[in-house]
Specification:
The complex is a heterodimer of chains A (390) and B (233).
Chain A (H helix, E strand, L loop, with lengths): L14 H8 L1 H32 L1 H5 L4 E5 L10 E2 L1 H7 L4 E15 L6 E9 L9 H4 L10 E5 L9 H6 L6 E3 L2 E9 L10 E5 H8 L1 H4 L1 E2 L1 E6 L5 H11 L4 E5 H13 L2 H31 L1 H9 L4 H38 L7 H22 L13
Parallel strand pairs in A: 4-8, 5-7
Antiparallel strand pairs in A: 1-10, 1-11, 2-9, 3-4, 3-10, 5-8, 6-7
Helix pairs in contact in A: 1-13, 2-11, 2-13, 2-14, 11-14, 13-14
Chain B lengths: L4 E10 L6 E11 L4 E5 L6 H8 L7 E6 L2 E2 L5 H8 L2 E4 L11 H9 L7 H14 L15 H13 L5 E5 L7 H18 L2 E5 L11 E6 L2 E3 L10
Parallel strand pairs in B: 3-8, 3-9, 6-7, 7-8
Antiparallel strand pairs in B: 1-2, 1-4, 4-5, 9-10
The chains are: A alpha+beta (390), B alpha/beta (233).
Bound molecules: adenosine-5'-diphosphate (ADP) and magnesium ion.
The site of magnesium ion has 2 residues of chain B, from helix 1.
């Protein structure tokens, strides 16, 4: 019989659940406390991941197999190398294409309020796309004209209402690095806490903005391999052919470089600290609840000892209570955090996503929080003396 | 027949060294299977202390205490816990768990027997509650039961595992005389049906007649009494 009842023996209702559900108010307080601690932790981790996931946006969307950067670069755009090295790289066996990539910062005047801020400039040869972003690649012809650019719609609002103006068909120039430039198209890439927004321009316009010397200096060379070429072999050959000051990195290594640089940011440490605070708040709350629960039921626990329950069985009850609280408290915690994440995304334009890894991390922290609190609270169980029950 | 309880030369004192205050002095007592023994005596004479020692709720200091075949002097914690599960305790206060229904309270005792199935436990707990006259209250929590009803749930909890020995400390003290009398008669009837031995501490003169033997305690010592089958060893 396929749909027959499974012959599972019915299990006793855990005493832990009976104790917790009997005191509704205390249960509610405990669950709100745990949710609150969860929200604190999620917010810190959310800020942190928003900050650091945004930082790898551009390196991650580059379209290449190997990347040449100056050896001392700590992140993409940090240092430059001479453009002539790119031609030497192109001649290395196994290299199909070697394309220039510029990644710099320009001053930007908000056309709405005339305030000067800055924007990140991505520049390339329009005939040699280097990014795996279709919206950019499809519109590269639009930036070939002088003083034209593509604008990132996910840039921060402080740069001005550029995208709405473009969509409305307005053609007002914007002052970039002292030159008047016009928006010829829009794309969506996303900013982060360190970058307000992006524009994409041609290498020729890059030269106009920053001068010939700068235009001769690349922030990265984007290399694609010939079909069948071995990545390790080509990378070794590039290292051998090019001067020592140039490193050849795989795509994963490039992203890793970026992550490890931003992870050292003091802001990251502040978020770690906030996470620990949330954890401590959680431990204190769960401990309070478990302690008063044990304390209020001391005579009941003593009675159970008197009728033959071992200390271990009663310890288990308290640990079960902790686990139940952790699991139940986590659910509203993560739900509220999801809501706050989307609120935060809308407010800042920075994508704050609930990643599975972060969710699991906070869930395990919540369990540890419960077990730790239970470990402190069970010491009170010792004062339940069965000799006191008569 | 082996006595259920065999105590020889038991001494007990609270406090240490010069402050040690002897509470039980040279207690000798044997109780045979099926006997109902009532222990009386003034407050502070050491009755509760003796009961808690017999129940393995307190560590014995000196003398021999053999309960249900287990020597308690020098017994390990594990042995004490095991013995406790074989004794039925009825306390002055009902000591029920507030968060559990009558049936759940009774099954707390049965849950210590892993060989019983869930269904067996339900059957035994409800049958026991019916036997104490609470068949219509199985799903009530202690808050919704009267004092007498709570004490009857406690009796059901003590008897449901069919222990060979029941230790009861003033089980009627919190009850009015009518329900006190009922509770004791109930214990007597169930004990007869299950063939168990009862040691009952009480001040209540109206229930002395249920005993086979009455023993009296004063200042930590057992005295001979005027009961019909008095046999203080
Ligand atoms: N835990 C304890 N610590 C110290 N003294 C105690 C303790 N329990 C009882 N006593 C003392 O032991 C004596 C006997 O008490 P108890 O056995 O409770 O007597 P009863 O039950 O006959 O009233 C009393 O003087 C009491 O004060
Ligand atoms: Mg007493």
């Amino acid at each position: 019989m396929v749909f027959g009842k499974l012959p599972l023996p019915r299990r006793e209702k855990p005493l832990a659940w009976s104790q917790l559900s009997h005191q509704r108010v205390r249960l509610l307080v405990a669950l709100s406390g745990i949710s609150f601690a969860n929200i604190l932790i999620f917010m810190q981790l959310g800020f942190r991941s928003a900050m650091f996931s945004g930082t790898t946006n551009v390196p991650a969307s580059l379209d290449g197999d190997v990347f040449l950067i100056d050896e001392t670069s700590q992140f993409l755009g940090n240092e430059t190398f001479d453009k002539s090295q790119l031609y030497r790289a192109a001649a290395v066996p196994g290299v199909a294409t070697a394309r220039p990539f510029y990644y710099s910062t320009a001053s930007w005047v908000n056309p709405d309020n005339r305030k000067t801020t800055s924007i990140t400039v991505i520049a390339m040869n329009p005939a040699q796309p280097v990014m795996a972003v279709p919206a950019i690649n499809d519109q590269l012809a639009l930036v070939e004209q002088s003083d034209r650019m593509l604008f990132d719609t996910k840039s921060l609002p402080s740069l001005g209402g550029i995208a709405p103006a473009f969509i409305a068909g307005q053609d007002t120039p914007i002052e970039v690095q002292g030159r008047k430039m016009w928006v010829n198209g829009i794309f969506a890439l996303g900013s982060n806490i360190f970058k307000r927004g992006h524009i994409v321009i041609s290498d020729v316009n890059y030269l106009r903005l920053f001068g010939a010397t700068q235009a001769n200096q690349l922030h990265a060379g984007v290399i694609k391999l010939e079909p069948g070429a071995n990545l390790q072999t080509v990378m070794a050959e590039l290292e051998r052919t090019l001067p020592e000051e140039i490193s050849a990195l795989s795509h994963a290594e490039l992203i890793e470089l970026e992550q490890s640089y931003w992870a050292k940011e003091p802001a990251g440490i502040i978020f770690d600290f906030g996470t620990i605070m949330g954890f401590v708040v959680g431990v204190v709350i769960v401990y309070q609840v478990l302690y008063s629960d044990v304390n209020d039921h001391l005579s009941e626990y003593a009675t159970l000892k008197a009728i033959g329950y071992s200390d271990g069985q009663l310890l288990l009850v308290v640990f079960q209570e902790a686990t139940i609280l952790a699991v139940l408290g986590f659910m509203p915690g993560i739900l509220c955090s999801l809501g706050l994440y989307s609120l935060l995304s809308n407010l800042t334009g920075v994508a704050v996503l609930m990643r599975l890894g972060v969710g699991l991390q906070v869930f395990s922290m919540t369990l540890v929080m419960g077990v730790l609190s239970a470990a402190i609270a069970v010491r009170k169980l010792r004062s339940a003396d069965p000799a006191d029950v008569f | 027949m082996e006595p259920v309880v065999n105590i020889q030369g038991l001494h007990h004192a609270f406090g240490k060294g010069a402050l040690a205050k002897p509470v039980l002095i040279d207690i000798n007592l044997a109780i045979q299977p099926g006997e109902i023994v009532i222990l009386t005596g003034p407050s502070g004479s050491g009755k509760t202390t003796l009961l808690s020692l017999m129940g393995g709720l307190r560590s014995a200091q000196q003398g021999s205490l053999n309960i249900l075949g287990q020597e308690l002097l020098g017994a390990s914690k594990k042995q004490l816990v095991e013995l406790r599960s074989r004794i039925g305790y009825i306390f002055q206060a009902h000591n029920l768990l507030d968060c559990l229904t009558a049936q759940e309270n009774v099954r707390m005792a049965l849950r210590l027997q892993p060989t019983l199935s869930y269904g067996d436990r339900t059957a035994q707990a409800t049958a026991m509650l019916a036997a104490v006259g609470l068949g219509h209250r199985v799903n009530y929590r202690p808050d919704n039961l009267s004092g007498g009803q709570k004490q009857r749930v406690a009796i059901a909890r003590a008897l449901v595992t069919q222990p060979k020995l029941i230790l009861a400390d003033e089980p009627t003290a919190a009850l009015d005389s009518q329900s006190g009398r009922e509770v004791v008669q109930l214990m007597q009837r169930l004990a007869r049906e299950q063939g168990c031995t009862i040691l009952l501490v009480t001040h209540d003169n109206r229930i002395l007649d249920i005993a086979h033997r009455i023993i009296h305690m004063e200042d930590g010592q057992l005295l001979r009494t005027g009961s019909p089958t008095a046999a203080v060893v």
